[in-house]
Amino acid sequence: MKKQKVSDAVIHRLPRYYRYLDDLFNKGVVRISSNSLGDKMGITASQIRQDLSCFGEFGQQGYGYNVAELRAEIAHILGIDLGHRLIIVGAGHLGHALLQNFDFAKAGFQVDSAFDISPDLVGTTIRDVTIRSMTELESYVELNRPIVAVLTVPQNVAQPLADKLIDLGIRGFWNFTNVELSTAVPDVFFENIHFVDTLLTLGYRISHRG
Amino acid sequence: MKKQKVSDAVIHRLPRYYRYLDDLFNKGVVRISSNSLGDKMGITASQIRQDLSCFGEFGQQGYGYNVAELRAEIAHILGIDLGHRLIIVGAGHLGHALLQNFDFAKAGFQVDSAFDISPDLVGTTIRDVTIRSMTELESYVELNRPIVAVLTVPQNVAQPLADKLIDLGIRGFWNFTNVELSTAVPDVFFENIHFVDTLLTLGYRISHRG
DNA sequence: AATGACTTGTCAACTTTTTTAACAATCTTT
DNA sequence: AAAGATTGTTAAAAAAGTTGACAAGTCATT
User: Fold this and answer.
1) Which of A42, A50, B102, B108 is most enclosed, with most CB atoms within 10 A?
2) CA B164, CA A70: separation in Å to the nearest integer?
3) What are the chain B neighbours of A173 within 8 Å (beta carbons)?
C-alpha cells in the first residue's frame, strides 16, 4: 500500500465505485475481477487497481475481489459506517425536498434536526424530523454537536451563518447556496452544489455542438 | 486567439467568471484588470488571460477589461443570450422546487413546460408553467421542439425515457437521477447532478480530517 | 503434487493537462 | 511625447492522471 496523498480524482471516483459495487452486491454477484469491473464502468482495470491501492489491498491474486467485502471496505473508506450527524438549515422548497426524499442514511448520515426562520414551518415534522426555529440553532448545535450542515438558505445569509456554525463546531457544509463559502479555520470542508454552473455548462455545450 | 480545443477545466471555470463579473457589473464597477480579478477570485492573472484567450480578445493593453463588455462576451460564450427552450420531466418534490425557485432565465433557459405522471399534479400551474400529463410528452416535444430536458424522475425510468427524448430531438439533459445516462447518438450532452456522490465525498473528508 | 490459467499490487514510463513566468506590443494618462 | 499599465501569446515548468508490464501469489484441474 502506497502512502501518498490521495488525489482528488481518486476521491471523486470512490462514490462511483461504491455505486457499482452496491449494485453488484444487490444482484448477488459474489466476486469480480478488476478487468470485468473496468468493462462495466468503462475504465481500465489498471486504474481500478491503482485507485484501490491508495487505501489497502482488498483483492486476491487469481481470484479478484469479493464484492461484499470490497463494497464494505469502500463504505468504510467513505465513512458510510460512521453515521455522521447532520442538520439542515433552511427548510424551504429545496430543504423540504431533501428532507422528504433524500436517503441520507444510505450516504452514512443521520439527520438530527432541521431549522427554518418561517413560523409557518417551525413545529412541523417531515419524516420524523421536526423543524425548529432558527433562534434555537445555536443552543441546539452547542448541545448536540452535529458535524455537518446542509445549507439551503438565501445567499446573503450564507457566509455569516457558515462562520457562526464553524464556531459552533460544524466541520462540513453541503452548500446549496450559490455563494462560494470560505473560512480560515482548518479542516473545514465545503461541498458546493452550484446548480447554475452545471446548467450553464450544459448551455455552453448545447450552443457549441456540431 | 488560439484555435485549440477548449479544455474541460476552462469550460467549468466559465460560469465562475460569469458569476464574478455579474457581481462586479451589478456593483457598478466599470473596468477591471486580470490582476485584480485574479485577486478577487483567488487565481492568477495569467490563468484568467489564458482562459479568455481561448475565445477571443476582450481586453485592452494598459486598460484591462470593460466589465459590462466582458460579462456580455462570456454570457454569449455560454449561450445565455440564446434562450434555449427546456422541459421539466417529473414534477415531484425536486422538480417542483426547481420550478418554483430556480431562475432558469438567468442561465439562459426558458421553461416551456413540465410533465408528471400523477393525476393530482397534472393541470396545476407553477410560476406560469402548467404541468402536463406524461402521455402528452411525446406529441408536445415533437411539436414544440425543446432542446433540453430536466430529469427529475425515478431511477428506473431514466434511461428509457432519455432514449425516447433523444429520439424526439432533445440534445441536453440536466439529470438529477442517480443513474449514469448514456447514448450512442452524437452531440447529446448530459450534466449529471449526483447528489449522493458529493455528500459521500464530504463524508470522506470529514472522516479523514486532521 | 504439479501444471496452467488467472489476477493482483506495484513500479515506472508515458501522456496529458494545467499552471506559471516572461515579454513584446500597445493602449491610457498626463 | 513619455511614463506607466496591462494585454495576448509563447514556451517552459510543474503537476496530475493514465497505462502497460510483470513478479508473485491463488485457484482449479488433473
Assistant:
1) B108
2) 36
3) 202
